[in-house]
Write a structure and sequence with these properties.
Number of strands: 8
Order of helices and strands: HHHHHEEEEEEHHEEH
Strand content: 15-25%
Distance between the termini: 123 Å
Oligomer: single chain
CATH topology of the largest domain: Alpha-Beta Plaits
Number of domains: 3
Number of helices: 8
CATH class of the largest domain: Alpha Beta
Strand order of the largest sheet: 4-3-2-1-5
Structural class: alpha+beta
Radius of gyration: 32 Å
CATH architecture of the largest domain: 2-Layer Sandwich
């Protein structure tokens, strides 16, 4: 029993395995130490995140070199074995390989970055982490109306960026066009209504048009796209029982619902101040097909 134990302890393969395990453990221990010490020196969350990811990436590279150095004398034989098994491994791990390829595309292709709002694989949310295999999203929407978090964290395989469209809400142009539809009575003063709605929109959105105009100029310089107007506008159309005024305006993608609420509140306040010149449509009920009613008087 003692001789067998000695053979195991002094086996070169066991020694190499122990050296590899100790080396990798030291590398990742150093990685954790560097992450804690360097991250505490920076206040910006984005900077801390990037430092942690960079240190982790360097740690993986060093760990691979440590293992390769320990098993340097066996790499020649392993090359033949890997060559034979390569086709089978590639087939079995094709989704993993596609996810790694997707990560490389994300790193150098500019599909999206952490902090941006995207829709990928049918999931809409803010990117909070990009790993080698998966992207982590803080989900927006679903059972929660508006562009608000629902509290659910979703992990999406990076391979989807190579298979499906990626919708980015905040990459080169961090603004969205939004619309608010308002029905008004046909008897309303149309010009006053249009001016009232436009004034409320301009008041609430503030300097968004000026900010978005600069961002849109960069878009025009980067892509083959027309120089679209970012100024608010109000259009009118008709329905069966009311006029429909549609306000179109530019808004920060993170504040779409909040901005719409403020605009609608201000419009209602201004409508009340017109003393009936502009008013909301009254509810109407039309009854058709009433059967004849026969009334008999007692004889």
């Amino acid at each position: 029993m003692t001789e067998r134990l000695q053979q195991i302890l002094f086996d070169p393969a066991v020694g190499q395995l122990a050296a590899a395990v100790v080396g990798v453990a030291l590398v990742f221990g150093l990685v954790k130490l560097l992450q804690r010490s360097l991250s505490n020196r920076f206040q910006e969350p984005d900077t801390r995140y990037r430092i942690r990811k960079f240190i982790t990436f360097i740690g993986y590279i060093i760990a691979i070199f440590v293992v390769a150095n320990v098993y340097n004398d066996r790499l020649t034989g392993l090359t033949v074995a890997f060559g034979v098994a390569g086709a089978g491994i590639a087939f079995a791990l094709q989704e993993v390989i596609a996810s790694v390829a997707g990560w490389i595309a994300l790193t150098f292709g500019g599909f999206y970055k952490t902090g941006q709002r995207v829709r990928v694989a049918g999931i809409k949310g803010d990117v909070i982490d990009i790993g080698v295999l998966r992207t982590t999203l803080m989900e927006v929407g679903e059972w929660v109306n508006g562009d608000l978090y629902n509290g659910r964290i979703v992990r999406v395989a990076n391979s989807f960026v190579l298979k499906e469209p990626v919708f980015n809400y905040s990459a080169d142009f961090p603004f969205l066009w939004d619309e608010l539809r308002l029905p008004l009575a046909y008897a309303s003063d149309r010009e006053q209504a249009r001016a009232l709605i436009l004034s409320c929109v301009e008041e609430v959105i503030g300097d968004y048009p000026a900010q978005s105009r600069a961002a849109w100029k960069q878009m025009v310089g980067k892509y083959l796209i027309e120089d679209a107007s970012v100024e608010p506008m109000v259009t009118m159309s008709g329905a069966d029982s009311s006029l429909i005024f549609t306000a179109r305006y530019i808004v920060d993608y993170r504040k779409r619902r909040f901005t719409q609420d403020r605009i609608f509140t201000r419009i209602l306040e201004e409508i009340d101040a017109t003393k009936g010149a502009v008013r909301l449509p009254a509810a109407s009920l039309e009854i058709t097909g009433v059967p004849p009613i026969s009334i008999r008087q007692p004889s």
